[in-house]
Amino acid sequence: MTDAATSATATPAPAAAPPPDPVTLTIDGMPVTVKKGTNVLEAARTLGIDISAFCYHPGLPVVAQCRQCLVSVEKNPKLQPSCQQTCGEGMVVRTTDAQSTLARQQQLEFTLLNHPIDCPICDKAGECTLQKLYFEHDNHDSRVDVPKVHKAKVVDLGPTIVLDQERCILCSRCIRACDEVAGEHQLEFAHRGDHQVLTTAPGAQLDNPYSLNTVDVCPVGALTAKDFRFTMRAWELEATPSVCNGCATGCNIEIHHKHGRAWRLVPRHNPDVNKYWMCDEGRVTYHQLREHRLATPVVDGLPAGWDRAIRAAADHLAPVLAAAPQQVGVVLSAEHTNEDNFVLGKLAKAWGATGIYVAGKPAEPARADGRLRVADVNPNTSGVTLIAAALGLTARPVGELAAEVRSLVLLGAELPGVDPGRLRELDVIAISAYERGPVTTAKVALPAAAWAEASGTVTNVQHHVQRMHAAFAPPGQALPAWEAMVRLAQATSIGTGGSGTAGKLSFAHAREVFKDMTQTVAAWSALTWAREARPLALRFAGSRG
Amino acid sequence: MAATSTTNPPPPAGDASGRSLRQLVLGRKDVQDLSDNEQELPPDLMTVNMGPSHPAMHGTVRIVLTVDGERIVAGDVQPGYLHRCFEKESEYATYTQVFPYTDRLNYVSPMINNCGWAMVVEKLMGLTGHIPKRAEYVRVIVSEMSRMTDHLTCIGASAMELGAFTPFLYFLKAREWLYELLEKVSGARLTHSYVRIGGVVKDLPPDFDAELALCLDQIVKIMVEVEGMLNNNKIFRDRMAGIGAMTKADAIATGCVGPIARAAGVDYDVRKDYPYSVYPELEFDVPVGTTGDCYDRYLVRIEELKQCIRILRQCLKQIPEGPMMVDDPRVALPAKPATYNTIESMIRHFKHIMDGIKVPAGEAYAFVEGGNGELGFYVVADGTGRPYKAYVRSPSFVHLSTAAQLIHGHLIADVVPIFGMINMIGGECDK
Fold first, then answer.
1. Which of A134, A144, A539 is nearest residue B347 as measured by Cβ atoms?
2. In whole angstroms, what is the distance from residue A543 CA to residue A119 CA?
3. Mean pLDDT in chain A?
4. Which fold has domain B86-429?
5. Which of A13, B248, B255, B366 is deepest in the core (most CB within 10 A)?
6. Contacts of A542 in chain B (CB under 8 A)
7. The CATH number of the domain where A213 resides is what?
8. B94 CA to chain A: closest CA distance, Å?
């Protein structure tokens, strides 16, 4: 399978090449050829015509419930829901004629009939499909002169989600999202007419591990995440494409950030990896970016500058490397990017260190569900394995630490399977984003950028090399881990006898590391480094619904 | 800029080299007195800085003058000290949020800038010609008042810089009356942001007609006095007439517009040649000069002030009753009670404020007659709520580019009236 390091939002445009089994139809006078079985709504989107819709979602079954996407189909006396209407050969569709325009307007008027005046206090305002469609397709004044029907404003649906039944427009996307993504039917409609409400079964909760996808697909502010609600206005945020580091699946995500911190993670479409979804656990991993961070270099438990810390590490390592390199263990990390591990692997090779290990968080077998969640909770296990093999290093699990190892150069903050007593005897040079575990007792600790703060790639369980973009600056003096190792390489080159090998460890940008890496790892030789993504201001991105 | 060095200080009187007193005082001999001996030639040309902060330089602009004695042989005009970034900033603001930025272009006549920006967006949205009549009249009224404040400032300040302090005080007082009226209209004395896409933000205040009429009567009286003080004033005419002259051909070739081009004989006024708003319904004349020097520029501005008063008096007679904003939900904010009480208006209000007015993709250029001439806005829209690219054709920038040519060969002291009559406004020049 070809890997996409570019990994932006690379859904190929269907219009580019005629698909197999093609059907040609005319929409608003423009001919379009699509694959047989495509619905009219999707066909129109390939032409740049965005037919308004609430209940249709490309990742969910079609129910044609909202009646918002009605269009005129020639030789058909009644308007047809374009989401359900399959494209037929020679079909003539009109989306802008008087009949369908009026239908859209009237449908919106119905939808707004009992909608509360909540925009100023609603978390969805600014990215609300209802707001967007009203402004684009209706924009007429209210004709209602009777009181609105009131429903429950705060319904606690479960551990992650609050429901506002007044705001709900009864599109059933959330019901289908639970069915499709989690495979659990936890939501249902109750009652009829303008008393119809979304609800769980009596006594039951919305508690599946993919429940927060319902918040994404909700076209209005009916379902809000407890994690995000009332924290930040959606239009203030900026979006940077990245990859979830919560497990080896590597769901494509957007980091929504502002003022140098992440406020939420939302899934980004990738048909090969996560489609439109991600799990609840992954969504809250951004909190760790602000917990137990190592923000300044530490030498013997005291804060130090970079120069002093690097010198302390080099002064410690140089004599050991010169006398007995087998006493130095180098620990690669399945939690860090390919670039970080590649530079550390090269450095270990240049040092002549023989004890190469791989560390990461211990697997959680209970997590694996055959959907998106897998047991391996490290984002880059397969990448580390490939890199070590390509560099000719024999990497063993860190639990099998050789007895003669006295000093440990550690990437990351995990040393699973290493006895605490043994750890006390080791001199640890840690390069880590977090100050926890073995990093707290390290001889020298060098602060590294966390996954959201540095550009790089991770390799998921399917061996896709996926690109992450730096969303904001790392805290304090932290640097990308590969950069810390480049500094360490320069400081120790004299100690290793100045063979010049360490000189090749001079990189100015993650792009250069990536280039060197793709030349070394044969499987990745075709990959290219995508341009840095500029943060997208959600305010001007249009409501993306 | 020529390579230069500074002159040596004059040697003490009666020095051994035997230079005459005349030489010591003037720095060099007259050309006819020069001998063939090159040793007698005085040192090189001198470089002096005028600005960036100089009391007689309007706005922050620097001129590096290369002078031969008092005479200017080259002037290097260097704008750019204001770092306005109007065009770039506009790309990061909604179309409505650009209005405060336009206030700060030519900040002596902000209402005209407001109108120009509104017109280009209206052109993109197909609203040109659909703006309510009363709103159009109000736009013309505030524009002409702004043109008056512009000319009053220009003439008053220039006269002061030439030593005539009384006209300055008189004209600035007159300007203040207009500013006070504009403050009543918009709420702000200088940065009005009064015009909106599709109309203006609110109606004129009560009693505005009477107050403006009174104000105009007083300004007419003041102008009689100031004209009496300046028009045939020996010093004023000596400093203005024949100074900084520009030919009609040069004015056209360099792209000059407004009073500067008209003083040089170019009969071009956007209000007449490309009529917009309700100018076709108003009677006024466009004054045109003959010599293109500073004195003609002064006379053209004085006459334009009189024409402004004429236009304003017609407007007060002709202005109809009616709405101040076009009835189009794409651009008009809903009424406040509806916003707070219906979800439809609430959404529209939210969308207008947060996302901005949705302008269909396309590009347009619209231009108005600003205080200094044709003020044009060019906008590329990409269908979102903010401009993809905005460009302003600011007259000050064009006029400033002719300054080096105009001051060439004149005395240092002539920079002051030439620059005063170019009327460069920094906020507009450093767009």
1. A134
2. 14
3. 90
4. Cytochrome-c3 Hydrogenase; chain B (1.10.645)
5. B366
6. 355, 384
7. 3.30.70.20
8. 9
Last residue of some domain: A215, A231, A247?
A: A231
How close A286 comes to chain B (CA, Å)? 27
Report the SS3 class of residue A298: strand
Q: Which amino acid is at A252?
A: N
Measure A113 CA to nearest chain B CA, in Å.
9
CB A521 within 8 A of CB A392: no
Q: What is the rounded CA–CA span in Å between residue B181 and residue A398?
A: 80
Judged by CB atoms closer than 8 Å, whether chains meet at A131 and B351 is answered as yes
The answer for residues whose C-beta is within 8 angstroms of residue B67's C-beta and 6 or more apart is B45, B46, B47, B48, B73, B412
Query: Do A374 and A434 fall within a single domain?
Result: yes
Find the CB nearest A112 among B338, B344, B351.
Answer: B344
Q: Which of B344, B346, B384 sits opposite A140 (nearest CB)?
A: B344
Residues A247/A249/A253/A257 CA torsion (nearest 10 deg): 10
Spatial distance between the Cα atoms of B385 and B98, rounded to a whole number of angstroms: 11
Q: Do B347 and A135 touch (CB under 8 A)?
A: yes
Q: Mutating which of A105, A107, A117 best tests the B interface, going by the most B Cβ atoms within 10 A?
A: A117
Closest to A354 in 3D by CA, of A409, A427, A421: A409
Can you give the pLDDT at residue B32?
A: 58
Same domain assignment for residues A485 and A336? yes
The answer as to whether A244 is a domain residue is no
The answer to whether residue A367 is domain-embedded is: yes
In this structure, is residue A282 part of a structural domain?
A: no
B contacts of A539 (beta carbons < 8 Å) = 354-355
Q: What are phi and psi of B190, to 5 degrees?
A: -120, -45
Residues of chain A with pLDDT under 50: 1-15, 494-503, 545
Cβ-nearest to A119 among B329, B334, B350: B350
Which site among B98, B326, B354 would you substitute to test the A interface, given the most A Cβ atoms closer than 10 Å to its Cβ? B354
SS (H, E, C) A72-90: EECCCCCCEECCCCECCCC
Q: Answer yes or no: do A326 and A459 share one domain.
A: yes
A108 and A122 fall within a common domain: no
* Residue spans of alpha helices (H) in A473-522: 481-492, 510-520
Determine what percent of chain B is predicted with pLDDT higher than 90.
77
CATH label of the domain that carries residue A406:
3.40.50.740
What does the alpha-carbon distance between residue B284 and residue B297 come to, in Å, rounded to a whole number?
Answer: 18
Determine phi and psi for B286, rounding to 5 degrees.
-110, 110
Query: pLDDT (tens digit, 0 to 9) for every residue of chain B, 431 residues total?
Result: 344 444 444 444 444 555 555 454 445 555 556 556 544 555 678 888 987 888 777 778 899 999 888 889 889 999 888 888 899 999 999 999 999 999 999 999 999 999 999 999 999 999 999 999 999 999 999 999 999 999 999 999 999 999 999 999 999 999 999 999 999 999 999 999 999 999 999 999 999 999 999 999 999 999 999 999 999 999 999 999 999 999 999 999 999 999 999 999 999 999 999 999 999 999 999 999 999 999 999 999 999 999 999 999 999 999 999 999 999 999 999 999 999 999 999 999 999 999 899 999 999 999 999 999 999 999 999 988 999 999 999 999 999 999 999 998 899 999 999 999 999 888 888 87
**Total domains in the fold of chain A:** 3
Range of A495's domain?
Answer: 298-536
Residues A199 and A74 in one domain: no
The reply to whether A75 and A157 lie within a common domain is no
Chain B contact for A235, CB < 8 A? yes
From chain B residues 228-267, the ones with a CB under 8 A of any chain A CB are: none
**E-assigned strand segments in A230-374:** 238-243, 252-258, 261-267, 298-299, 302-303, 328-333, 355-359
Interface of B with A in 306-365 (CB under 8 A): 329-330, 334, 338, 340-348, 350-351, 354-355, 358
For residue A118, give the chain B residue with the closest CA.
B343
* A·B CB contacts under 8 A: 62
A362 and A458 together in one domain: yes
Of A231, A251, A271, the position where a domain reaches its end is A231
Q: Which of chain A's residues have a Cβ under 8 Å away from the Cβ of B348?
A: 134-135, 139
Residues of A in contact with B350 (CB under 8 A): 119-120, 125-126, 131
